[in-house]
Each structure stands twice: as structure tokens, then as C-alpha cells.
């Protein structure tokens, strides 16, 4: 196995670079054909790795790629999930090298999707190829790579429900999360959920002269800014009535367990060039980004933002707002609470509209399972260290749906770093992480085949 990996290293990397050259941005219809091209590329590589039935499945959005290798119906089955779509690369001018012309600098691959998630799911295809070309597959494997994760996986729930038999598995294996550092491997055991809304505040029926009308007519931007500011109190608590009602509070032991993960506040601040952190009183930085829910404006616009100055009292102001959820909050409940509250705080003189976007449920992986043990041991085998269980802050909406629709739990065996700049300019993925991942994954199959009897 090590020999195969060593002698095919260059090719594995070249293939990933070719995939990274395809701008598969799911959010922007301009890239629709490129998204399909990426799907075709993945399908071909799955077939080339030796998997059967490699095909594209159409959805009302972007296609799902699927392939499988059933070696023995009596062996356990692993379903690998990943996404070949990427976030928009904007703002392009902040990239040191173009986002879709992957470049290797300082032992890192720089490109949009390098870590999230092309570099990460591609490790699985190469690990499967390596196992098949050497000792054989210890488990059956099914691979499903979707093209709409970055836009909320809207069509994947239906796809999964309609292909229950095809997707039947004992465990779902996903590399789309982070480890603490290359010296401290970790396994994420939780994901936050998401509720995403867009709000629109309307004042007068048209933009007005801010001298002629200013002072007498509500300014939607002023109003929106005040409304958004009121959503947190001075302790960083969210003020929406009922928002915390279903939040599962961790007990002291659980909090102490999570606090064991090494963390340097100084390095954290330095990395982000901030002079202090900010958040909910009574919780550590790690807790604020994992076991606590949040509310953030992601974008705000309205009025005149062009060059120079224009004296205008705008008719409308908008914002996109996301709320990260924790067990047992649900996107439906939180979206309803938000809408009710936000409309109720609108002052006289404006009207407010709330439009829900996508959402997703939070998820927690049980650690007392053979699945978790197989993953934990895989890290020990490949890294010589036991991984630290961590609760992650990001969201992968399909994970909770997998459990609902298939009754199967997911293992979040990601190899990225938070500093890989996912969704930011200059996203990168370490060559070390790419190769180490390919080395670690086969241990999971080996351990799982032994443990699951
Ligand atoms: N891979 C990320 C999620 C992630 C990143 C989890 C790092 C844990 C650590 C995923 O591609 C993602 O970006 N998800 C979106 C949700 C989606 C509905 C847009 C997110 O978390 O914003
Ligand atoms: Mn991802
Ligand atoms: Mn992402």
C-alpha cells in the first residue's frame, strides 16, 4: 500500500489539480456547464479507480455522482459523501494567484475548493484506488459526491429518499471538516445547524432627496442597522424571544472534556489580526464557535454605494442573516421565531419582509460506537496519536438528513485546517494533509471490517 501511494503520488496530485481547474461554483448559473464538467470528471475518476456503476444522476439542480464496489454482501458497507461544488471565488482581486489556476507554494495547493471539498473527497477516491490495487477492499464501498452542498443541498434530501436501497450502508464517511493542527489530529463529533434568512426594510415608495425629506421620513438603512443591532444584548445573548428554549446546555464534565483541546487565544488573535475576541459572556472561544448558537449579518446593502457622494434617502435596505444552530434547535422553529420577532420590532414608518433561504439541522456523532472507534484508531495507526474529539462550528445540512432518511450515522473524518481559508480568498490545502488523508482512510476500512462483526 505504502509503495503504491509513493509511486503514484505525482499522478494523484496532478489529477486533483485538474479537478481544481474546473470552476464548479454552484451558486452562480454562469458556471452551470463547469459544474457538470466537474461531475463528469469525478465520474470518470471513480470508474478509473475500479468502482462499478459510476454515473451521474440528474436532479432539478446540479447532478449527483455515484459509484460503488460491492466486494462481499456479508461485509460492512461504507458510504462516502463529499461535494464537488465550490463557493464563489469573489473577490478575485484578493487572490495572490487565480482561484482556478491551482498553484503550489510552501507545500500547499492554492485554489478555490482545494480543501473544501475537492482536495478532501478526492483523497477518498485515491484511497479506494490504492486499496483496490493492493490488498483489496476490506468493506463494500459506495461513493456519492454531490454538487449543491454550498447552496444548501436543496435537492439531495429527495434524492436520498428516492434511492434508499442504492445508498443502504452501515456508516457514512465524510472528509469535509477540520483537524486542530497537523500536530494534534482531531475528529469532529458535531456540526451546527443553520437558518438563513434575507430581510427587506421599505420606507417611502421611492428614493428621496435627503435634504428635502431627511428628518421627516424613516430611513430604511438607519432602521435596519438599529434592528440588527438590537438582536444581541450587551452580553452577546441573542434577544429573540424563545431562541434558546431548546438549546441543550452541556454539563461541567462535558465542557471540561471539550476544553482539553489545545488552544492558544494569543495565536488565534494574531492569526486574525484582531486585538480581542467577541462573543457570548460565560463561554470560551471554542464554545462560542461550536456548542452555542449564533446570529450574524452576512451582507447588508441599500442606498448609494458608488463613487463620490449622493444625497439620497433610500427607499429600501436589505440584509442577509444567518443563525448557526445547536441541538435541539431546528431551522423551522428558529426561522419562525426570527420572522415573528423581526417583524414585531419594525418601527412605524417602515414595512419589513423576511424571506427564508436554506436551513439545516445540527448533528452530533455518538462516540461510543464501533464506527467512531474505527476512525479514532485509524488516526492512531497513521498519525501515531489518538485524535481529540471536537465539536465543529460549520454545517453540512445533509448529515442530519442521512440519519433521518437512511438511519445511518456519519463519521466526520476531515483533514483540513481552519487556517486553510475555506470560503475566503487564497483557500489552500496542505500537501501533507492530502497525502496523510489518503494514508489514513484505508486504516478506517481495515479497522471497521475488524470491529463490525
Ligand atoms: N465543509 C463546510 C462545513 C465545515 C467547514 C464544517 C469546516 C466544519 C468545519 C461546508 O462546505 C460548508 O461550507 N457548509 C456551509 C453550509 C451550507 C448550507 C452553505 C456552512 O457551514 O456555511
Ligand atoms: Mn464543504
Ligand atoms: Mn463550504
From TrEMBL:
Entry keyword annotation includes Protease: yes
UniProt xrefs under InterPro entries: Bact_exopeptidase_dim_dom, Cyt/Met_Dipeptidase, Peptidase_M20, Peptidase_M20_dimer
UniProt keywords, alphabetically: Hydrolase, Metal-binding, Protease
GO terms classed as biological process: proteolysis
Domain Peptidase M20 dimerisation, chain residue ranges per copy: 190-348
Gene Ontology molecular function: metal ion binding; peptidase activity
Pfam families in the cross-refs: M20_dimer, Peptidase_M20
PANTHER family the record matches: BETA-ALA-HIS DIPEPTIDASE, SUCCINYL-DIAMINOPIMELATE DESUCCINYLASE
Protein name: Dipeptidase
Organism of origin: Spirosoma terrae
Organismal lineage: Bacteria, Pseudomonadati, Bacteroidota, Cytophagia, Cytophagales
Amino acid at each position: 500500500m505504502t509503495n503504491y501511494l509513493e509511486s503514484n503520488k505525482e499522478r494523484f496530485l496532478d489529477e486533483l489539480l485538474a479537478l481544481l481547474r474546473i470552476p464548479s461554483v454552484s451558486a452562480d448559473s454562469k458556471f452551470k456547464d463547469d459544474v457538470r464538467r466537474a461531475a463528469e470528471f469525478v465520474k470518470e475518476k471513480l470508474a478509473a479507480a475500479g468502482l462499478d456503476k459510476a454515473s451521474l444522476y440528474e436532479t432539478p439542480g446540479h447532478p449527483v455522482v455515484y459509484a460503488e464496489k460491492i466486494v462481499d454482501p456479508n461485509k460492512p458497507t461504507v458510504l462516502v459523501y463529499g461535494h464537488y461544488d465550490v463557493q464563489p471565488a469573489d473577490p478575485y482581486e484578493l487572490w495572490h494567484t487565480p482561484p482556478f489556476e491551482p498553484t503550489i507554494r510552501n507545500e500547499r495547493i492554492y485554489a478555490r475548493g482545494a480543501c473544501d471539498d475537492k482536495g478532501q473527497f478526492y483523497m477518498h477516491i485515491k484511497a479506494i484506488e490504492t486499496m483496490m490495487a493492493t490488498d483489496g477492499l476490506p468493506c463494500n464501498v459506495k461513493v456519492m459526491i454531490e454538487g449543491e452542498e454550498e447552496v444548501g443541498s436543496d435537492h439531495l434530501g429527495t434524492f436520498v429518499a428516492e434511492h434508499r436501497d442504492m445508498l443502504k450502508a452501515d456508516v457514512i464517511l465524510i472528509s469535509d471538516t477540520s483537524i486542530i493542527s497537523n500536530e494534534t489530529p482531531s475528529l469532529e463529533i458535531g456540526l451546527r445547524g443553520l437558518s438563513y434568512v434575507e430581510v427587506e426594510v421599505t420606507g417611502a415608495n421611492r428614493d428621496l432627496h435627503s435634504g428635502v425629506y431627511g428628518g421627516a421620513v424613516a430611513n430604511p438603512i438607519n432602521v435596519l442597522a438599529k434592528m440588527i443591532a438590537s438582536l444581541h444584548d450587551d452580553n452577546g445573548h441573542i434577544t429573540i424571544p424563545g431562541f434558546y428554549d431548546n438549546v441543550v446546555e452541556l454539563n461541567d464534565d462535558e465542557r471540561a472534556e471539550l476544553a482539553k483541546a489545545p488552544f492558544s487565544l494569543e495565536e488565534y488573535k494574531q492569526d486574525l489580526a484582531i486585538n480581542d475576541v467577541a462573543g457570548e459572556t460565560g463561554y470560551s472561544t471554542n464554545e462560542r464557535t461550536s456548542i452555542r448558537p449564533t446570529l450574524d449579518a452576512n451582507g447588508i446593502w441599500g442606498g448609494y454605494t458608488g463613487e463620490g457622494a449622493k444625497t439620497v434617502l433610500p427607499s429600501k435596505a436589505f440584509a442577509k442573516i444567518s443563525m448557526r444552530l445547536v441541538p435541539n434547535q431546528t431551522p423551522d422553529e428558529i426561522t419562525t421565531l426570527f420572522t415573528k420577532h423581526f417583524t414585531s420590532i419594525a418601527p412605524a414608518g417602515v414595512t419589513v419582509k423576511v424571506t427564508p433561504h436554506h436551513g439545516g439541522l445540527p448533528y452530533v456523532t455518538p462516540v461510543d460506537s464501533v464506527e467512531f472507534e474505527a476512525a479514532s484508531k485509524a488516526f492512531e495507526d497513521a498519525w501515531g496519536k489518538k485524535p481529540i474529539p471536537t465539536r465543529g462550528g460549520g454545517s453540512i445540512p445533509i448529515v442530519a438528513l442521512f440519519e433521518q432518511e437512511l438511519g445511518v450515522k456519519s463519521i466526520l473524518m476531515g483533514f483540513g485546517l481552519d487556517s486553510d481559508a475555506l470560503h475566503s480568498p487564497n483557500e489552500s490545502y496542505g500537501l501533507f494533509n492530502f497525502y496523510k488523508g489518503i494514508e489514513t482512510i484505508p486504516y478506517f476500512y481495515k479497522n471497521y471490517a475488524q470491529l463490525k462483526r
